[in-house]
Amino acid sequence: MPFLCHTRKAALWGATALLTVGLAPPGARADIPDENYRPVLEHLLTVVVPPKLDALHDATTNLSGEMDDFCAEPDQEGLDEVREDFHVAMDIWQEVQPWRMGPLVANGRDQHIEYWPDKHGTATRQFRKLMFEKPTAYTDRKKIADTSAALQGFPALEEVLFDAKRSESLLMADEDGMFLCGYGGAVAANLDRMTGELVKEWPEFAKNMVEAGPDNMDYPDAKFAATDLYRALHEGLLIIASQKLGRPLGDGPKDGKASRAESPTSKRSLRNIEHNLTGLFAIYDSKWGDTGKEGKGLSALIDSSLLDRSFRLNWQTMTDTLDELPPSIVELLDQPDGYQKLADFAGQVAFVTTLVEGDVGGTTQLGGGFNALDGD
């Protein structure tokens, strides 16, 4: 896959960065005391994350309200407003999404919030059937929670709000438009409900992790609990490389296909990754917008200031590259050199992933072992 194969330019960048990074020297290290992990857990899980979950819930509440307002009097201005509210809520979700632990993934909640990747086109087939049959369960704000995950969450609402044909029906308020308004309203209300559950359930989960110890059935020690944080950082980057970039890149330039990207209809696939990286870096640094304090994440366990500075530099290089790209892979692949730019960026993500595996994982003593993405 191209995301694993660096171009000559990316390979040279990687080689230079390897010399700069100053990989942790081999050899035995003294074990990090278990109590050193506990402040990291406490700061990230009880100080940093809760305000972000609150913001996500507030954004989906606002999105639900704006959807209702639009459907009461459909017009282009109202549609533009609800689309903007969708983007605001999606931005925050994409920052929270990579944490993938506790209430975020309990009972498949993350898939109900965003059913992706959809490798077999399940949502497309089910949506076509939905519009033909127009079942009342999908406009019922209580019953929709028990329907197909592929027709819930952000991708479903994206189809309602951003597909040109659907938008036309919404504005005309024809039979399809009336159904779409009822359905979109139910989806938005269900997102509001699910994010509200996240807010309520997170404190107990966080408390359980922070209080890791011999009497804790889930986390026998603080290091075991902190491994979940490292795993979220590592797997978050793997998902970006293998799914969010790897799927549209395909097996080469002739196989590249923007429709396989995340959020293609709302044209925000790379914008999603930008926000993913913000949430992921918070695991390392703990500073997340206006919450948290710099250096209280996994970086607090790094015993080399050179290693820490070098990791930050390589991360910044990766995000600077992303800043130069458009918000959508659809738009990027329309450019003559778009595929190469996307492949180069994917190579940088893959390289930073190796730094997480070798340097961060090794220095914090949290790396290695189970990886949920490899089927072990």
Short summary:
With 376 residues, this protein is mainly α.
List the SSEs and their pairings.
Blueprint: H1 8-21, H2 34-72, H3 76-96, H4 109-113, H5 122-133, H6 153-162, H7 164-172, H8 175-210, H9 222-249, H10 269-285, H11 305-323, H12 329-333, H13 338-364
Helix pairs in contact: 1-13, 2-3, 2-8, 2-9, 3-6, 3-10, 6-7, 6-8, 7-8, 9-10, 9-13, 10-11, 11-13
Q: What this model shows, in words?
A:
- Residues 1-28 have low confidence and may be disordered.
- This protein has helices spanning 8-21, 34-72, 76-96, 109-113, 122-133, 153-162, 164-172, 175-210, 222-249, 269-285, 305-323, 329-333, 338-364.
- It has 376 residues and is mostly helical.
- It folds into two domains: 2-30 and 221-364; 58-195, Up-down Bundle (A middle domain of Talin 1).
- It is built from 13 helices and no strands.
- 64% of the residues lie in helices and 0% in strands.
Largest sheet: none
Structural class: mainly alpha
Portion of residues in helices? 55-70%
* Overall morphology: globular
Q: Give the SSE order as H and E letters.
A: HHHHHHHHHHHHH
Comma- or semicolon-separated keywords:
disordered N terminus; 13 helices; globular; 2 domains; single chain; about 65% helix; A middle domain of Talin 1; about 375 residues; mainly alpha
